[in-house]
Amino acid sequence: MRRTNIDLKEDYTHRLSRVFSFIEKNLDADLSLKIVAARAHFSEYHFHRVFKFVTGETLNEYVTRKRIERAALDLVHRKNTIKTTAFKFGFSSMSSFSKTFKKIYGISPKEFQFQNPNKFSKIRQLESKIGQAYPDIEKYICIINNIKNWIIMKADIQIKEFSDLNLACVSCTGPQNLGLAYQKILLWATPKNLMSEDSKMVTIYHDSFKVTEPDKIRMSACLILEKPTETSHQIHEKNIERGKYIVGHFKINMTEFEKSWTGLFIWMNENGYQKADKDPFEIYYNNPNEHPDKKAIVDFCIPIV
């Protein structure tokens, strides 16, 4: 049977999943085509074609974008000096960093750091969706206070130590593809009798909506494994490392996920915590479609140092 472009893209995406992780963990290092292709066990020529086919970007374009996005988050969450951030993410000069940063975000790193840090956040996205201009300082403070009050009523927030979580995952790009990724997990897990009333699904966010365009957000749809299980060519294993997390437990409508994440990050900042260099994730405790009020029971988890 002839394989379609969609089939090929899904297969290559799976094969590149470890490459994406390697890139994200080594943004300060040499990520040349030769080094990354060798990591993927492809020839340089074949890897270049496959990578562009899957991501729509060359390796250099992808790495540069990831470095700038991570640098932007670093400026927002850690308030590092611009020079420290530039060298932390592999830029050899301030001029190169500033020029590339401005090309992606339209403003300099200095302007980005000292402007309202939520200009690029989900609040901005929600405002723009309904045709409103970005709020002035009074309106902004009102929005923040409303979210703070809302999260106090909606969430049980705790600091928890997590043990290692072993997962079976399917990665995808763009929120519109997350449902299909979960279908693949279920089709793989059900015949293996891995699904039960106690099974928990997890969504990992490898990128942030604060700084990455939605259609380029990488996510993983996952199932928590209770024991070691052999995966398939489309399912990869992943481990969420033990560590300390802010955990917000919610019972919410599906339309309230963005507001919940925004509120939890505000809570993090207000209480003096700092995000760790790990990916945030959601743990689901039910199927919202089976809840009488269509509510999702979910933990939002932010890794902290």
Spell out the blueprint of helices and strands.
Layout lengths: L4 H21 L7 H8 L3 H12 L3 H19 L4 H7 L5 H12 L3 H6 L7 H8 L7 H18 L1 E7 L2 E9 L4 H12 L11 E5 L12 E7 L11 E5 L2 E10 L4 H14 L10 E4 L11 E9 L1
Antiparallel strand pairs: 1-6, 2-4, 2-5, 3-4, 3-7, 6-8, 7-8
Protein name: AraC family transcriptional regulator
GO molecular function: DNA-binding transcription factor activity; sequence-specific DNA binding
Keywords: DNA-binding, Transcription, Transcription regulation
Description:
The protein is of the alpha+beta class and 305 residues long. It folds into two domains: 5-114, Homeodomain-like (Arc Repressor Mutant, subunit A); 158-304, Multidrug-efflux Transporter 1 Regulator Bmrr, Chain A (Alpha-Beta Barrel). The protein is built from eleven helices and eight strands. It has helices at residues 5-25, 33-40, 44-55, 59-77, 82-88, 94-105, 109-114, 122-129, 137-154, 178-189, 257-270, and strands at residues 156-162, 165-173, 201-205, 218-224, 236-240, 243-252, 281-284, 296-304. Strands 1-6-8-7-3-4-2-5 form an eight-stranded antiparallel beta sheet. Helix 2 (33-40) packs across helix 3, helix 4 packs across helix 6 (94-105) and helix 9 packs across helix 11 (257-270). Residues 17-115 form the HTH araC/xylS-type domain. It comes from Salegentibacter mishustinae.
